[in-house]
Amino acid sequence: MLTNLTTLALTSEQLTGGIVLMIVGMGVVFSALILLLWAIKLMHAMLNKPAPAPAVAAASVPVASAKAASDEIEPETLVVIAAAVAAIVRKPHRIRRVDSLTAQQAGSNWARHGRRAIMTSHRPTRR
Question: Where do transmembrane segments lie in this chain (predicted)?
Answer without folding.
Answer: 20-40
